[in-house]
Amino acid sequence: MPASCTVCIALGSNMGDRASHMAAARGALSKLPKTKLLAFSQTLETQPVGPIDQQAFFNAAAMISTELLPRELLDELNLIEAQRGRDRFKTRIKWGPRPLDLDIIFYQQQVISEDDLTIPHPLMHQRWFVLKPLCEIAPDWVHPILEQTVTQLLAKVKP
């Protein structure tokens, strides 16, 4: 059995009942196999990024301890999204609206670069809506590539 790893996940929702989607995601994260929910940030309302006109997002961050491998965790997160009405393949619009979005931000200090899995998340250091809630639960987490803490990264971006 793999050793337990600490993982940070970003959550977002801007379609339908955003509060319900976020609450369901929190519950689902706490029920993942071989996983324990360690922390969950407050939920923030943020403006969307990108060229598409859409409703504001609810954003949060979670920290879990898991024995799931990165690919297994990604599959579980995709399943949670699908259960909340997200179809990654039929309705995927880059930076578009979605009922629920779950992204692996950090998986321990691992660096992974595959077609559909990049850890740390490639744009997280530019996104206030990821860094602000993450700073609440993991302010001293050091980005394995940029070698800066979440707090330091947050200080460089604007809301």
Layout: helices, strands, pairs:
Blueprint: E1 5-13, H1 18-30, E2 35-40, E3 44-46, E4 57-66, H2 70-83, E5 101-107, E6 112-114, E7 117-119, H3 128-137, H4 150-154
Antiparallel strand pairs: 1-4, 1-5, 2-4, 3-4, 6-7
Structure description:
The protein is an alpha+beta fold and 159 residues long. It has a single domain, classed as Alpha-Beta Plaits (2-Layer Sandwich), CATH 3.30.70.560. The chain has four helices and seven strands. The protein has helices at 18-30, 70-83, 128-137, 150-154, and strands at 5-13, 35-40, 44-46, 57-66, 101-107, 112-114, 117-119. Strands 1, 2, 3, 4 and 5 form a five-stranded antiparallel beta sheet that branches. Strands 6-7 form a two-stranded antiparallel sheet. The longest helix is centred in the middle third of the chain and has 14 residues, at 70-83. The model has no long low-confidence stretch (mean pLDDT 91).
